[in-house]
Amino acid sequence: MWRRAGATSVAVAHWLSQLESALPAGVLSTDPADLAEYGRDWTRVFTPNPTAIALPRTTAEVSTLLAIAQELAIPVVPSGGRTGLAGGAVARERELVISLSRMRAMGPVDALGGTVRVEAGAVTLAVHQHCEPHGLVWPVDFASKGSSQVGGNIATNAGGVRVIRYGLTRNWVLGLEVVVPGGAVLEIGGALEKNNTGIDLRQLFIGSEGTLGIITGATLKLAKLPQAPRVMLFAVADLAGVLALFREARSAPFSLGAYEFFTRQCMARLLSHRALRDPFSTPASHYVLVEVEGGADETALLEWVESVFERGLAQDGVMAQHAREAASLWELREGISESLSATGLPHKNDIALPVAGLEAFCAEMEEVFAARYPGWEIALFGHIGDGNLHVNVMKPETMTREEFFTRTHELDTHMFALVQRHRGSISAEHGIGLLKRDFLGFTRAPAEIAMMRAIKAAIDPKAIMNPGKIWEA
Amino acid sequence: MKILVSLKRVADPDNANKIKVTPQKIETTGLEFKPNPFDEYAVETALRLTENAANTKQRLGEVTVVTFGPKEAESTLRAALATGADKAIRVDATDDALDGDLVARALAKLIETEKPDLVLLGKQEVEGDANQVAQLLAEYLGWPQATFAGSIKSEGDTALLVGREIDGGTMNLRVTLPAVVSVDLRIVAPRSVQSVHTKADHAYPEGVRFAALMAIMAAKKKSLTEVKLTDLTGDVGLKIKYTGFEPPPARKAGVKVKSVSELVEKLKTEAKVL
After folding, report:
1. Which candidate from B34, B213, B220 shows the least CB-CB separation from A324?
2. DSSP label at B179?
3. What is the spatial distance between Cα A232 and Cα A366, in angstroms, rounded to a whole number?
4. Regions of chain B where pLDDT drops below 50
5. Closest chain A residue to B35, measured at CA
6. How many Cα neighbours within 13 Å face the side chain of B61?
7. B220 touches chain A (CB under 8 A)
8. Which residues of B touch A320 (CB under 8 A)?
9. CB distance B217–A228 less than 8 Å?
10. What local confidence, expressed as pLDDT, does residue A7 receive?
11. Taking the model in full, what pTM does it have?
12. Which one in A9, A327, B2, B113 has a CA-CA gap of 20 to 30 Å to A351?
C-alpha cells in the first residue's frame, strides 16, 4: 500500500508537475502556511501534512483536478470551512487538498419556489444574509456558521441547533452538482421538490464525508424566515430535571424552536474564556436554553412558565426582552465548544440516543465515569430535543496528551458499547472521519458497512476520495 | 429612596437594512425596538441603589420608570418592570412631536407629583444623540445635577457621591438630594454603584440584568399608567424643527491592492492620510 509508506517524493514531484501544467496559475499552493492551515479541521489531534492545496475557481477546474487525481491515483481531501470535529477534512498523508473556498458565488433567490443556487464554498452565514431580505432562510444553523461552507455542510449532513424544528441538512438540499473521480460532472436533482425517478443519488452524496466525490454546487431549499423568537434560559437541578422540563415543553401550547442544555462545567469554562454574563446570581447544576417560535401567544407562554415554577420544574429562569438579549443568551450555548478548546484539551464525543432512553443512558454513563475515571471533568451539553449529547472529557492537568488520548480511546470503547446497548449512534452529527472510524461497528452492522464499501468502489474505483475516512483505506 | 428613571425605546441598530427614509420622515413601522442602552444602564443603576445585592427580590425603595411614546412603547416599560422596577408611566406622544426641551418640561411637571429623591437618565439617547434632557430638567427643577456618571456611591437619603466621566479623568461631585443624574457606560461595571444596603465589596456581573421569568409574570400585575402630554404642559411647541430626512451616504466599495507600496501610495494620494 503506497499510503502506509507515504507517497515517494519522486511521485509527489510528478503529481505537482502534472497538476501545474493542467491548471491556470494560482490554483495550486505549496506554501507551508497554507499546507498547515488547509490540512486540518477543528480537531487538533492530527498533524497536517498535505502535498499541496488546490483552490479552484470553477467546476471545470475541479473536474480537471479529479481527472488527473484519478489517473495518477493522487489521494484527495475535499475541504470546506474545516469546522468539522471528526477529522474528516484532515490531510495528514501527503494528500492533495481541494478547497472550495474560492467558489462561493450565490445565485438569485427564487422567492416563489423558495430555492437558491449556490456554489459549494458559500459560507453558511453568507447564505443566511443573502436570503434574509426575501424573508427566507436556509435553516441549517450552528455555532460555526461564520466559517462553515455549504458543500461541507452537505457532505457531512450537518446538524446544529435547529434540528428539533427543521431536521438535518439533508432535508434542505434539492439539487447537487458533484464532480466524481475521473472528472465527470453530475447534475443531480435540480430545483425540484418532487422527483421520484429512481434511486436518489443526491442522498448518497449527502453525508458521505467526501468519500465519493466533490460537491461543487447545490440548489438549496429555503424556509420562511421565522418571526423573532422568545428565548429563555432555565436553571435546573440535574439531568432528570432537564428531561422533565423537556417533556413539559414538548406538550406546551407553543412550538419549540430549540431546546439545548449544558452543565455548570460548560458555564464555568465559558465565563473564564469569554466576557459573558451569567444570567443567574447563583450557579446552577444544569442550564436549559428554550427557544419558542415567534408568534406564540404571550399569555399562554407566560402561564406555562408560571406552571413550571409552581411545580418546581425549574429553579430560576430569565427571558430575553429584545433581540440583543436573545443573542447574548444564545452566545452562552454557542460559545461552549470554542471555550472548551481554548481553556483545555477536550476529548469530544457526539452521540445520539432515542430521546426516551436518554435518562437511563446518562445514569449508566455516570456510573462508567465514576468507576473508571474518577475526578475527570466532564463537560456535557447538547440538543436534548433530538437526543443528541455532546460528551466532552477534559484532559486532567497532570496527564500527558499521549496518556490522555490512550485513556480516552479505551473510554470510548466502554461508552460506545453502552451506546450500542441503548440503540444509539456513536456519531450524531459530527460524522465518522478519522476520529470515530475504529468504532463504526458499534452503530452499523457488518452487512451495512460492506454495502457502503461496495457503493464507494463503484463510484471511486481507485479509492482516491478522502482515503482513510469513515473506514481504513 | 424613591427613584424616577426616564427611558426611551430606540430602533435596534440590527434593523440597518430595513429602515426606509423619505424626505418627510423616517418610516418606523415594522422596525424592531430596544431600550436606549444608556437608559437601560440608568434602570440598572436605580435597581442597584434600591436593593441589597444578596436579595435582589426585595426592593428597598421605589423605582418608577417613565417613557414618552406610543402604546407600543409599553413593552419597553414592561421589560423594565420585569427587571425589578415597581411602577411605570407612559406619557402618550410620538417622537415627531417631541424634542428634548418639551420632554424636560413635561418631566419636571410629572416630578412635581411623583416627588422622587433622585431622577436618573441615560446621558443621551443613541438616535438623536442630543444629550440635553438631564441638563434642561435640572434647570427647570432647580435641582443639582451630575452628568455622565461613571460611579455612584449612595450616602443615604441625603446625598450621593458621583464620579463623573470627564476628559482626562474623573470628577467627584457630592450632590445633595433631590438631584438629577445622567449615567455613562461605566456605571454598569461590577463595583460602580454602591448602595447603603449592599455589602461594600460586592461585585455585580458586568452589564444590565436579565428579566427573571417569575418577575415577568409579576410585572404584568404592576401599575402602568398613561398620562396625556397636554395634562403635563399646556405648551407642546417644539424648539427643534426637522427640515428634512435623508439616509447616510452609501459607502463606496473598497479596492484591493497588490502590494504594500501600492497601499502606501493610495494612502498618500487618494485617502490623503499620510
Report:
1. B34
2. E
3. 28
4. none
5. A322
6. 25
7. yes
8. 210
9. no
10. 75
11. 0.81
12. A327
Write down the ipTM of this complex.
0.73
Inter-chain CB proximity A278 and B32 less than 8 Å: no
pLDDT exceeds 70 at position A3: no
- d(CA A42, CA A35) in angstroms, rounded, equals 15
What are the residues of chain A with a beta carbon less than 8 Å away from any beta carbon of chain B? 133, 228, 232-234, 275, 277-279, 281, 302, 305-306, 309, 314, 316-325, 329
pLDDT value for A351: 94
B222 at the A interface (CB within 8 A)? no
B79 to chain A, any CB pair closer than 8 A? The answer is: yes
Q: What are phi and psi of A13, to 5 degrees?
A: -60, -40
Determine, for residues A277 and B207 on separate chains, whether the beta-carbon distance falls below 8 Å: yes
What distance in Å separates residue B206's CA from the closest CA in chain A?
A: 7
The answer, yes or no, to whether residue A1 has pLDDT greater than 60, is: no
B213 touching A, CB under 8 A? yes
User: What does the pLDDT read at residue A241?
Assistant: 93
Looking at residue A205, what is its pLDDT?
Answer: 97
Task: Tell me the nearest-neighbour CA distance from B212 into chain A, angstroms.
Answer: 4
For A135: left if phi > 0, alpha if psi spans -120 to 50, otherwise beta; the answer is left
Cis (ω within 30 of 0) for the bond into B178? yes
Nearest to B161 by CA among B150, B171, B170, B172: B172
Give tens-digit pLDDT for A345-396: 999 899 999 988 888 998 899 888 888 888 899 999 998 888 999 999 999 9
All domains of chain A, ordered by start, with CATH? Answer: 9-102 (3.30.43.10), 115-224 (3.30.465.10), 230-337 (3.30.70.2190), 344-442 (3.30.70.2740)
Higher pLDDT, A4 or A456: A456
Please tell me the distance in Å from A434's CA to the nearest CA on chain B: 39
Domains of chain B: 2-243 (3.40.50.620)
For residues A65 and A183, give the distance between their C-alpha atoms in angstroms, rounded to a whole number: 7
